[in-house]
Amino acid sequence: MSEMARKVLLELLNKGELQIGRSRDVTLPASRIPNYPFEDAHVSRDFHAFIKLAADAGPIALEWKRHYEGVELLRVRLLDPPALASFLERDFLPDRVANIFSDIDTSNAPTWVCGVLEQLRQKWLTGKSMYGLSVDDADKLHDIVTTVTVLDNLPADVTFDYRQFGARYLGNSKRTRELAAPVTALFREKLNLQGMREKDILRQLNLVPLSHPVLIHGPLELTNGRKIITTDIQPYLGVPSEFLAEFNYIRLAQYVLSIENLSSFNEYTENIHDGGVVIYTGGFPTRSLQVFYQRLVSTANTPVYHWGDTDPHGFLILKKLQEVARDIASISVIPHLMDATDGDAYSDNQLSTLKRLLPINPLVDALIRTLIEKRTGLVEQESIPASSPFHSHDIRCRS
Q1: Long-range contacts: 70-73, Cβ < 8 Å, 24+?
Q2: What is the mean pLDDT of residues 361-365?
Q3: Which helix (H) or strand (E) holds 203?
Q4: In this structure, are strands 228-230 and 220-223 parallel, antiparallel, or unpaired?
Q5: How confident is the model at residue 327 (pLDDT cuts 50, 70, 90)?
Q6: Beta-carbon neighbour count of residue 108 at 10 Å?
Q7: What is the arithmetic mean of pLDDT over 256-273?
Q8: Residue pair 166/175 in contact by the 8 Å Cβ criterion
């Protein structure tokens, strides 16, 4: 068999599969065949023998041209795409796509997932990709549907790490990471999360690399219905997520402060003890932490602050916390130690991202506009010594 001839016929078949239902002839000129006519007599003999064999079988026709040295191939014309696929021992694309989707169980899938699958089927029939998935990724489709269905119905207060989710729902602890790109692409569109990083979207879906307790300090008493724990200890307490559903304030909190990065959270809780509730968000907060945060700030009746990096991602976290807070009460999340008078310059891309984050709330919007105007102010929060907002701000958090 000639590998060159097989490659040529596969190229012709690929063209033909995309023209199904159209009247247009599908041909491949010999001028498109690399190095044709071949100088090597053995290569030429094997190539012509294979394509003539295919022509004798019926799926293609060969057109020749004469010149003074003899006969030379002019073009190959496709007559019967399914027959050519059978000759090449390859599944015909429409049949392959039909078989792929007939094997997908959508009985428990949300309606929007079924709509996505139909769009994907149409794309594959035209040889195109969608959400980073091509027809060659068919082996992932079943697990993607399972993953998206589970996550779409996952209670807001339930968090899984990647390995745990994969082992429990996909039968493979490593599978979650393998599916991260298409799963986040699907939810990025459904939840309108354009511009958000993959790992942050997964946290929004309550999927994390490794589950950790939520780190909290402050005058709170929490219960899981059987046991009661208090977070009013130094420097802080790691709280299992099951304890976040029910809580009471032991006494009036002076403020609520969320902190993006761990080193800053450690420094703050080690050195500042002035009656605030302080929470470590772990970067972008998981959906389960967002639920707890919403309950916390809506019952605190006290100023609410956030301390994070002054890059676009830091303000994105603040914006998410603001959205969560605003869903239940008219609360403004106040930026703490994020109004840098100096700092590194922002790139043009970072400045554009900052602009797209607006609006957040009047305080944050004014700060971001100032940073955009100066084009500087990029600071990692770890470079700023921890200090309390209790005595440095006099801003009401409720409008």
Answers
A1: 72/30, 72/37, 73/30, 73/33, 73/36, 73/37, 73/48
A2: 95
A3: helix 198-204
A4: antiparallel
A5: confident
A6: 11
A7: 96
A8: yes
